[in-house]
Amino acid sequence: RAPRIYTRTGDAGSARGRRGGGHGTHRGSGGPGPASERLPRAFPKGFSSTFTGERRPKGDQIFEALGATDELSSAIGLAGEFSTEKGHTFVEQLHKVQCMLQDVGSNIATPLSSAREAHLKRTSFSEKPVLELEQWIDSYSEQLPPLRAFILPSGGKSSAALHFSRAVCRRAERCVVPLVQAGEADPNVAKYLNRLSDYLFVLARYAAMKEGKEEKIYVKPEP
Predict the structure, then answer these.
(1) Structural domain that includes position 97
(2) Cα separations in angstroms, 89 against 86, 203, 206, 214
(3) Which CATH number does the domain housing residue 127 bear?
(4) Residue-wise pLDDT tens digits, 171-182
């Protein structure tokens, strides 16, 4: 399984580098700990490092894609909490998706132009998760009524949160596509995000149906 994302950044709230915890985590304000637990020396402001050790500006497309992927996982986490309160059985799928997004981030953080064989073995991303999403999409789609109008994000908290996750997913996909086109990320990463947005849309509709919530539809305003 691919490693978590470890990018070293130049601000005070940065990740702990390759020696530390998961992506975007750092030790809290409980005072300095042992030397081995302290934050690494920061890079000059405005730069971060990829998993391959390559330093790039923080505005680089790689870090834009990583940030969008992190936001997506957070949005799905919120949707999962709302869905748990309603007893939805698909919550375990959402947790699995969050784990897969860690692998997506690992691949993004390992640009192919500077990756060595050891990096590639740890951060490769296969087509298998894409096929699994397609199976889930088919399963839920078969249980839904036909779609006859444009649906607005609605249908209760679970559904609305899943719609929001879908929108974030589409942005993450837009960030990743240029990396794939430049040969810096695996095409399966973009495919996964593309199918994930469809999955989240179908799941939002399914959640509304199971909760008996009304889906609001687009109505053209009167001129």
Answers:
(1) 56-211
(2) 9, 11, 11, 20
(3) 1.20.1200.10
(4) 999 999 999 999
